[in-house]
Write a structure and sequence with these properties.
Shape: globular
Number of helices: 7
Oligomer: single chain
Strand order of the largest sheet: 2-1-3
Distance between the termini: 31 Å
Structural class: alpha/beta
Largest sheet: 3 strands, parallel
Number of strands: 6
Order of helices and strands: EHHEHEHEHHEHE
Radius of gyration: 16 Å
């Protein structure tokens, strides 16, 4: 693929702190597109997908805060990323809320299965495991749940995105940079048999 589609997702519903919606702008201001173009790729900036803000949304479920709104944005991420793949481009999804991975990884998994009949591998580079579920999360923040949804059935609103679940097998998943796991998350990592690296 010699073309890269930049897709901004200024979502700010998944965590307990505000500000991650500025991630796409910060990366653009830092010259990400120009740096990729300097490597010889054609860069197309597809702009930002619309994302609601917490002040205009209803919390609904304290165990998975704003999950319906997050799932709607992730569905748009999935559709937009899959469209880029189908056009022969590599989608590069910019954000700050970890929840958006439920959409971008689902698109990659669907495309690989449909076009190559192959499963994907996943490098999860993060200080946290993001393998909580609504039943294990102490905060109810959905940005701590996307990897759980990619590996299994919960939260169901995210795991249902795309055409199949799980999107990636635990044996094909490597967690890199992990330094802070909740006690129940440690059990999930061991149970799923994901590979961890600090």
């Amino acid at each position: 693929m010699k073309s890269v589609h930049i897709i901004g997702v200024p979502l700010d519903l998944g965590g307990g702190r505000r500000g991650v919606d500025m991630g796409p702008s910060a990366l653009r201001i830092a010259g990400l597109g120009e740096q990729i173009a300097a490597l010889g790729y054609t860069v197309v900036d597809r702009g930002d997908l619309p994302a609601p803000i917490p002040e205009t949304q209803e919390l609904r479920d304290a165990h998975k805060k704003y999950i319906r709104d997050i799932a709607k944005v992730c569905q748009k991420v999935y559709q937009t990323s899959l469209s880029s793949f189908d056009e022969g481009a590599m989608p590069l999804v910019l954000g700050g809320d970890h929840s958006i991975a439920a959409g971008s990884v689902a698109a990659a998994a669907d495309w690989a299965r449909r076009t190559k009949n192959l499963p994907i591998g996943l490098l999860w580079v993060d200080a946290h495991g993001d393998m909580n579920t609504p039943a294990t999360s102490l905060s109810g923040n959905v940005h701590g749940m996307p990897l759980a949804a990619l590996l299994g059935p919960e939260p169901s609103e995210l795991s249902k995105i795309g055409t199949f679940s799980p999107k990636v097998l635990p044996a094909h998943t490597v967690l890199v940079g992990i330094r802070n796991l909740d006690e129940r998350e440690k059990v999930a990592v061991r149970t799923q048999a994901c590979t961890c690296s600090r």
